[in-house]
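Researcher: Quick sanity check before group meeting.
Model: Go ahead. Protein one:
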Amino acid sequence: MHLLPHPPPLCFRQQKIFFCSLFFSLLYVFCALTAEGENNFEGIESKFSLRTPADPDEDVCYLVPGQVNSLAQCNFNHTSKTFVVIHGWTVTGMYESWVPKLVDALYKREPDSNVIVVDWLVRAQQHYPVSAAYTRLVGKDVATFIDWLEEEFNYPLNNLHLLGYSLGAHAAGIAGNLTKKKVNRITGLDPAGPTFEYADELTRLSPDDAQFVDVLHTYTRGSPDRSIGIQKPVGHIDIYPNGGGFQPGCNLGEALRLIAEKGFGDVDQLVKCSHERSIHLFIDSLLNEEKPSMAYRCNTKEAFEKGLCLSCRKNRCNNLGYKVNRVRTKRNTKMYLKTRAQMPYKVFHYQVKIHFFGKTNMTKTDQPFLISLYGTLDESENIAFTLPEVSSNKTFSFLIYTEVDIGDLLMLKLQWEKDTFFSWSDWWTPFTFDIQRIRVKSGETQKKVVFCSRDGTSRLGKGEEAAIFVKCSEQPINRKRGGTKKASKENSAHESA
């Protein structure tokens, strides 16, 4: 699903038609939800297609609530896990390309499972507010179907996992809220934002809808309720890859490359690239079991960008996706991570802390640096980062990440780049700092390494050659120096949040 910009102003007659249509659609939803009678299967419009590993993109067999023989005809496995996939809003009225990809990945990871795709395409291709209102009915359909499985066949709901994308995430939440017994798990894949950001918990995805609810937020740009993906946490664990606002590889340059390679047929992918990334991150977790992406608990994305939250103590880190560790807390847990632009998305996170010594007081803002890491397995050179501020005799912490597994760190290079624009102050005033040690912590291994200057102190000059630091022969005892002590306290505060 993706949301389009607001439509152009309608003439008065068109507005009357639109709002009348919206009113009667909402009235229909209300009447259907308040209809009496248990296990009334006649009002169900959603279809439940049991896909197969051989045909993950075809609806070849439907499970029909109330028709017991439909399960046998479709070879439903009563002893295996069941995944229920719920799509979102659609302009075309057709399934989007991610559906068979997710079905195929689920079967590759769990070959004996049942993968059911909920077809609510007719309701999902209406005006967005109408389709958003229909999530109540879709959720009711799914809940009725689940209750039927449990009551008629004694199917254990502990084997049931709902996966909903965008509007489908809220439909999954409503279904979980309406079932007579709790389903095992709901995964919300970038739940839709408009009309849901301030909605009541009963009408959207919430932690109470399943025994465990995990959520991926990948497109939360803009003001609340206008953001394509919901911004606030709505699960037990809410993960915000790359801060949740925008995903790597979804920029204009990548769009032009995709058009050059595949033509205009995939242009719609560009519009929903970040929104749909939530699905592909989950698919990645299914297919690359040996390379799980790690997320870290943090109060804010700003604190995460400083590298202050790379702790795994007391469940402060977790796997993204299928093998997430189920942690239920009294309040929502917000987690962050970086990813690559393409699958496999896993990267390796590092916190770097540097104390800049200077004989004179000096402060520079938005300074570009390059850092290179060398380890026992590989190396990653010229990682670009920008420090919002660099000041004399202060300690600064920041986050970097690599796309390769470097192994145990052995050496580090640091270079202070020239500004991209010409500055007379740089010409007449040489800016330099002295650095004795650089401290690095790995998020994935939790190892801490201290690098020392080979000369005792390295001079770092703006626009000059890189300074080289090697792993200290003996790890120094932590000194109670002001900057380091302050950074340590800041670390603890953000990790305990």
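Researcher: Fine. The other one?
Model: Protein two, sequence then structure:
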Amino acid sequence: MYEMEALLSRMERMRKRLGRHANERHQTMQARIRRRSAAIVGAAVAVISAGAATIIAAQGANAAAGCEVEYTIVKDWGSGFQADVAITADEPIDGWTLEWDFSGAVSGISAWNVSEQSLNGSRFTASDAGWNGSVASGETREVFGFTANGTAGDITGATVNGVPCGEGDGEQTTEPEPTEPAQDGTPVEEHGKLHVCGAAMCDEQNAPVQLQGVSSMWLHWQSQPYAQNLQALEWMRDNWNLEVLRVAMGVEPEGSYLDDPDRWKSEVETAINNAAAAGTYVIVDFHAHEAHTHQAEAVAFFSDLAERYGHLPNVIWEPYNEPLQVSWSDTVKPYHEAVVAAIREHDPDNIVVLGTPSWSQEVDVAAGDPVAGTNLMYTLHFYSCTHTGWLRDNADTAMDAGLALFVTEWGASAADGGVDGQVCLDEAQLWTDWMAANGISWTAWKLDVGPDSTNLLSEGAPVTGGWDNHLQGHAPFVIEQMD
């Protein structure tokens, strides 16, 4: 029976998507305003317009006078922005470190194509990644980009390789970029704020909805900041039909949240702001196996984010990725009750997805003693080479008892993420058909580069999307399911 329901469900989703993607997509208009002048070593002056600024730098040992640094605001969505940085060299440059001060309040910077980056107060520093350190005489080279929370404002006190920028006057010209019609039909525009309806998820019009997307790698283990890049998110939305991105913020390993909470919370905020700009849903995942031992930290984390972002219609909270083999009623449930209470103090209605014991598989156990509250769903994880029909049977039991499920992580591999490179596509198809028949939303593991069969991308995949020639492992299957 569910095979026929799955077919009908997929046909209906395809009909809606064809209508949606018939609408034209757009990018925010970019205005590039360039200021050129001769370099004079002395007091540092930088000028920035609403679109872009050029900083004239006198350089040191590896930099020559007359270098221009163009800082372009690509997108600005109010609570954050994306910028690109280019260098024009009068004389060759072999390695660069750029620094400047932001005049406005900026936080949560995530840059790509750099080897080092830091933000100390208002002072931002970034160094080349090696392959992009050389700029030939007369060449203009876009060297890196970043997203940040806050307002773009002005930049001042710019230096290249430690030498202050010069000052001077110059002619200003405006070079507008091509514009396109306003974007229509993003997932959030189509569905609005989501809520739990019985054992399913419904949209703002009370119609059942199944979201499909991908999960990030543990943020601190990403090979590049794919999950924090707005262009990549928009590309997946437009080319993969992605509707939701899960941001897996690692909590316990060395270098993750417990070691550096300010940094990793800022990275999550970047992803939230990107999703708001792209019109996609975002899952904020406290990616831990022993989160109940860090309950105070989790309460503080979710309380703060819920207060500042709980008004958005596209945020979904996931307080506990995969509890280990611990008691649901005595250990996991009390933790969820504490974190849900902290979220609900500021965000009364966005969906919260609750992890379950044994790596989020014991949804049938949770069904016997559910957490009280509204708009609560329960996490189910599977890997098709390891988990087969017996786990679907457990999930059916949970749904029959009234639980709403969300598969926030799955792979067409073994439960180790496919370190052997193998995939089990026949069983994976049974799983995706089952999810379609039951309207269960999902995010597939994981958006990163590497040999594991659950890594979606191959070596050399750019951080900004355009990955048609960089798919590997179970990626083609996952993308095909996002119909």
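Researcher: One line on it for the slide.
Model: DSSP finds eleven helices and 24 strands in the chain.
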